[in-house]
Description:
The structure holds two protein chains of two kinds. Chain A is mainly β. Chain A is built from no helices and eleven strands. In chain A, strand 7 (62-67) and strand 8 (72-77) form a beta hairpin. The model of chain A has no long low-confidence stretch (mean pLDDT 93). Chain B is built from no helices and eleven strands. In chain B, strands 2, 4, 5, 6, 9, 10 and 11 form a seven-stranded mixed β-sheet that branches. In chain B, a hairpin with a 2-residue loop joins strand 5 (44-50) and strand 6.
Amino acid sequence: KQEVTQIPAALSVPEGENLVLNCSFTDSAIYNLQWFRQDPGKGLTSLLLIQSSQREQTSGRLNASLDKSSGRSTLYIAASQPGDSATYLCAVTLGGGADGLTFGKGTHLIIQP
Amino acid sequence: EAGVAQSPRYKIIEKRQSVAFWCNPISGHATLYWYQQILGQGPKLLIQFQNNGVVDDSQLPKDRFSAERLKGVDSTLKIQPAKLEDSAVYLCASSLHVSIRGRLFYEQYFGPGTRLTVT
């Protein structure tokens, strides 16, 4: 059974800092990995999707890396802003990619102004 | 493009009552998912539909939960009777496959969720 772990569970940093969120998964036979953002009372917004054959994906100030063999992914946020405050969720898919996602519990991020 | 729609947004019921949630996926999305997110946890897949057929319902508590997707578009999720531990946010997502360098990917788009409180 696939299990996804996210560390740390919560993080509070001053505005402007670069930060790293960690995700690990137990079954390396993933199809792809996604990072999501969840704001209070709202649904999930997809940030980055990494194919199993890729090593990283970038979007603006966000960079996600994937080391499939070691079962790890990191989300790097550069020059953090108060608007980045949210819960960040990591999720993986097995099988043919159309399968449901297995999520971690998330990292609750607070960026202090 | 309209996103995934869900209703109601909030629902409060007493234990042993019944409740139903509705989801309208993004137009043209063949795959639809229902997830349950308990406070402090990540979402957990309950059921997955491909058009109007069930692909995976292995984590659906079938003694009290049921779901259907008539005509392969809208979907309803029902709980009957509800228990206290069913208090959670119920998220609906839909996906459309995209081909990237000959490989298919299914990016899921989530609705705002329905927050259920069972008292």
